[in-house]
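The pair is set out directly below:
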Amino acid sequence: MSTKPPVEAVPWLKPDEERAWRAFLRIMVAVQAGTARDLATVGLSEPDYEVLSTLSERPAHTSTLGEQADKMGWSRSRLSRHATRMETRGLLRRAPDPADGRGCLLVLTEQGLDALENAAPAHVESVRHHFIDRLTPSDLAAIERIARRLEQP
């Protein structure tokens, strides 16, 4: 027995809703592809940059794997695999979590901090080029307002 509603009962998108949805997807893809391409020129991926930048803001440049995964919206296993690749490149190291014997801490290394400091100017320039400089102050305010509305459950 199917739990799907009959096709005629689905609240299909109206043309203006469909255009807005598709425009939103195009924006996300275009901005993300541009900034990812620009970060790649300095040897980092977007997830690398997010991990490094958030660790740089934490006390002692350290975070639990769980906190970092939650911040990034990733599963712990996905972040663990990515952290392994970053650790191999010397960008971070793992340490035992004294508060959780099963967990670990992610610690930014000097090499990781250097990579972040090297990438940050290029990343900011990229964000400006692909996003900020193309919008008006009222556009930016509208995006913030929309983001707050979409973040609510």
